[in-house]
């Protein structure tokens, strides 16, 4: 009787404490709700502190409920309840740790005494005394816990798990970070909301796996056989497919299950998690030039989640693809290099030859002329997009780049290059690819007695150097051995390169022929003669700045009105003489027709002689 009375008093005391704590917490919650609703920006009570107090209160209620039920239990039941109560022990430190976790899971337990308990634990086991005690308690009760990486509700029991649960666990183990499929039975379900991170990050190694690609069947129903039906695929890149921010070119760069349908000039990225998106790109670096870009094939780049509806591979490659056009302004040596070869080197050098070049607007003569350079950049024969389209080919790649990474004219900027390349790296590549022997010019006084060589580029149609013979004599009088050459589009690039590389200085009127300066040995001198008409800025941009970037000494000679044939076409007071830069407002077509192609030059040899002397002095030790 006395024992029953004591238990009754204890229960009354705990009941009073319970009511008092309920009132206190209720007032706290009401105050907190009022504060947050009236001042959403208040930071006195953060969400984390709210979770802390709420967790503390719920644990206290659970512990109190456990103690109250234990008062009337027999000895065996009391022992089991003590084990459960230990799991519910209220610890402010543990509650604070729970408040720091981004997510929790609720374990619904059933004990042999028929008692039901809901309590909160961390998603993943943490190191520390509290969780060590929790793990020990779970081991003592011979109950198993299935840990899931996201918010879940898990039904636990002392008995054996179902075969479905074990199968789900094996799937989760085999798939790494991927979520296991949902498993359901009559009474309970395991619900998962796992998110799979598939973005390849620069600071992590790229995950590679072999993927069987769909193969287009032949006419007889048998699948087409290719030497290699698997490709090395990378984790799908969630970055935007294309970058349109550059002033000179739009470029697309993407990885995964990439399929190139040549007949439609499109690249399709198959990604089950991707939203349908499509871009159109003209892979040539003259963005904004409608005339030029009108000669360039438009490439479609799109992402789709519909693998079944995507083009089926007829050939799989284990190297990335780089797609570009040799339309536009190619055929002019300046544009051949500035628009294609220099940016192509900047784009593909990272692959060390392990890259598949895909070309649009192919001209066979262009491939012949620059074939040696192309073979140095890629070990694989280039794909002609038009021919592949006519054959109905679908090429598949693990990675693809559409368009080229172009910087300034004939220049690779080290700070912008993905691989830290610069213009001298390109000219070094050029000398190596063409077996050009000289990487330094002849120096005056080197003891060999040889005279430095000056190559004068003679133009054949426009901006003619009318007194070429007088310029040659003046250069010889200064001390040069002079060579005259007319650059022609049909000349072999190897022959032109060896001729230029044998010289120590290059002289020419503004024009594409000056592009040959890239074959000069570093330290040589390049002299540009600029026609009349305020063309200094374009002359420096096209050839002056690139010459300096190549490690050459640069001299710019700007002719006077008396040296231009324009004086014979226009009256002395015409705007073309008084304000030539004002004519630039009429557009580049007018400038080219009037100021570039519309005049020839007769150099004032007396005025020009100091320029020749400076070019020679640049070669002194």
From TrEMBL:
- What topology does the record note for this protein and the membrane? Single-pass type II membrane protein
Q: Which UniProt keywords apply?
A: Glycoprotein, Glycosyltransferase, Golgi apparatus, Membrane, Transferase, Transmembrane, Transmembrane helix
Q: Which GO terms describe its cellular component?
A: Golgi membrane
Q: Where is this region: Disordered?
A: 156-235
Q: Which domain of life is it from?
A: Eukaryota
Annotated transmembrane regions? 20-37, 49-68
Coiled coil where? none
| GO terms assigned for molecular function | pentosyltransferase activity
Q: Where is the composition biased (Low complexity)?
A: 190-199
- Ranges for domain Glycosyltransferase 61 catalytic: 405-527
Q: Where is the composition biased (Basic and acidic residues)?
A: 158-172, 204-225
- Places the protein is found: Golgi apparatus membrane
Q: Name one Pfam family in it.
A: Glyco_transf_61
Pathway as given in its UniProt record? Glycan metabolism
What protein is this chain from?
A: Glycosyltransferase 61 catalytic domain-containing protein
């Amino acid at each position: 009787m006395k024992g029953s009375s004591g238990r009754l008093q204890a229960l009354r005391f705990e009941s009073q404490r319970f009511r008092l704590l309920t009132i206190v917490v209720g007032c706290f919650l009401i105050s907190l709700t009022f504060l947050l609703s009236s001042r959403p920006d208040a930071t006195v009570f953060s969400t984390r502190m709210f979770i802390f107090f709420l967790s503390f209160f719920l644990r206290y209620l659970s512990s109190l409920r456990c103690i109250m039920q234990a008062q009337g239990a027999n000895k065996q039941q009391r022992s089991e309840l003590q084990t459960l109560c230990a799991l519910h022990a209220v610890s402010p430190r543990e509650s604070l740790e729970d408040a720091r976790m981004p997510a929790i899971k609720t374990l619904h337990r059933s004990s042999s005494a028929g008692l039901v308990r809901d309590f909160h634990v961390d998603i993943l086991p943490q190191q520390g005394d509290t969780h060590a005690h929790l793990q020990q308690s779970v081991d003592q009760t011979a109950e198993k816990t299935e840990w899931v990486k996201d918010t879940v509700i898990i039904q636990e029991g002392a008995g054996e798990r179902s075969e479905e649960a074990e199968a789900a666990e094996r799937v989760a183990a085999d798939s790494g970070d991927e979520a296991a499929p949902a498993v359901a039975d009559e009474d309970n379900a395991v619900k998962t909301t796992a998110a799979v991170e598939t973005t390849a990050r620069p600071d992590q190694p790229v995950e590679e796996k072999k993927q069987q690609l769909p193969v287009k069947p032949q006419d007889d129903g048998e699948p087409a056989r290719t030497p290699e039906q698997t490709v090395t695929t990378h984790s799908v890149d969630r970055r935007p497919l294309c970058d349109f921010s550059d002033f000179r070119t739009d470029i697309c760069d993407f990885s995964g299950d990439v399929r190139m349908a040549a007949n439609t000039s499109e690249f399709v990225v198959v990604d089950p998690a991707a939203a349908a998106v499509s871009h159109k790109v003209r892979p040539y670096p003259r963005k904004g030039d409608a005339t030029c870009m009108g000669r360039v094939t438009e490439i479609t780049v799109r992402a789709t989640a519909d693998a079944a509806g995507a083009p089926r591979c007829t050939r799989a490659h284990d190297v990335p693809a780089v797609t570009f056009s040799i339309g536009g302004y190619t055929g002019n040596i300046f544009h051949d290099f500035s628009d294609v070869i220099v940016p192509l080197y900047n784009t593909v050098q990272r692959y060390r030859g392990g890259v598949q070049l895909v070309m649009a607007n192919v001209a066979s003569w262009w491939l012949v002329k620059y074939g040696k350079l192309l073979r140095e950049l890629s070990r694989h024969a280039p794909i002609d997009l038009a021919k592949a389209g006519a054959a109905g080919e679908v090429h598949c790649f693990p990675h693809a780049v559409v368009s080229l990474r172009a910087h300034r004219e004939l220049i690779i900027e080290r700070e912008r290059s993905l691989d830290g390349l610069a213009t001298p790296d390109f000219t070094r590549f050029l000398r190596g690819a063409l077996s050009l022997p000289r990487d330094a010019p002849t120096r005056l006084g080197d003891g060999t007695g040889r005279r430095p060589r000056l190559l004068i580029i003679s133009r054949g149609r426009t901006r003619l150097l009318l007194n070429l013979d007088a310029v040659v004599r003046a250069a010889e009088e200064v001390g040069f051995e002079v060579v005259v050459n007319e650059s022609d589009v049909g000349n072999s690039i190897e022959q032109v390169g060896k001729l230029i590389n044998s010289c120590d200085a290059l002289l020419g009127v503004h024009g594409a022929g000056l592009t040959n300066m890239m074959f000069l040995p570093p330290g040589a001198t390049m002299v540009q003669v600029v026609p009349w008409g305020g063309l200094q800025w374009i002359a420096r941009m096209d050839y002056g700045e690139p010459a300096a970037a190549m490690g050459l000494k640069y001299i710019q000679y700007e002719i006077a009105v008396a040296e231009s044939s324009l004086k014979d076409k226009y009256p002395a007071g015409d705007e073309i003489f008084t304000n030539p830069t004002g004519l630039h407002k009429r557009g580049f077509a007018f400038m080219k027709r009037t100021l570039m192609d519309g005049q020839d030059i007769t150099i004032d040899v007396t005025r020009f002689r100091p320029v020749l002397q400076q070019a020679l002095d640049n070669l002194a030790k």
